[in-house]
# Entry
Amino acid sequence: MRQSFATEVKNNLSRELYPKACCRTAELSALLRMGATLTLSTGRAMGLSFVTENAAIARKAIMLLKGLGGVYTEVSMIRARRLLKNNTYNVRVMPAPEVSELLDRLGLMRGMGRLREPEEDMELLEKDCCKYAYLRGAFLGGGSVNRPEASYHLELVTENQAMASFLLRILQALDYPARMTDRKDRYIVYIKDSESIIDFLAALGAEKAADDVEAARNLKEVRNQVNRIVNCETANVSKAVEAAGREIAAIHTLEAAGMLDELDELLRETVEARLAHPEATRAELGRILSISKSGLSHRLRRLQALAQTYREY
# Structure
């Protein structure tokens, strides 16, 4: 089964590690906020459980956690029981006193005190590079982006309204035209501008995905331009056919009234040219008669006016 475009992007991003420790911390902090829950042992020691359907993201979470050191992790897989459903991977940080220090370093909790609100993560995001790392973690944990051939849409989805509001704040601070909405019990921060989606993907490190979106956008623009030209030409042809039909009808009216022989030489010449070339546009007919388009239009209006006079009688 073909992977979704979003899955391809996440798989590529999951292979990359930021060289700076501050960026790795910011990325892990957002990733855990998007998909982790706290656990408690019988001895009140804290642990973490992070659930994802993407094996590459599970491996990435483990690498980032091991990079901080001091905690023991394990991963388990739950096989999907239904067709076309993904397996689920549960990355667990086993309960231990050291987990409190980990949560403190990630900005999720202060010691054994209260859980911190997402807004307080701004302490981790003094640099723009850390802001983008945080957004990458959020995308890995709850992001999606449409395949380039479809409509332009990138979103970050979370069940935490405060987290969604904070992500919106970061995106807008970085000049992305992001908006926020809700769907049932989920909050969605989204971008629909193609240029912004391209820039966002590139900033996260997904250059190939950004190139794919840009290539698809350019192809769409070319197709739209071709369609506009074809539609314009079709409309012009339709107008030319309708105009020629009215002119030939006027000539037949004059013919039925026996008036063609009474026309002056220029009008008779025009009548003969139009009947000989019924499909010609006025511009083409003007070239055949070696007169300007405006001069031809004047003659044709005279013919139609004469025909109208005989219709009225």
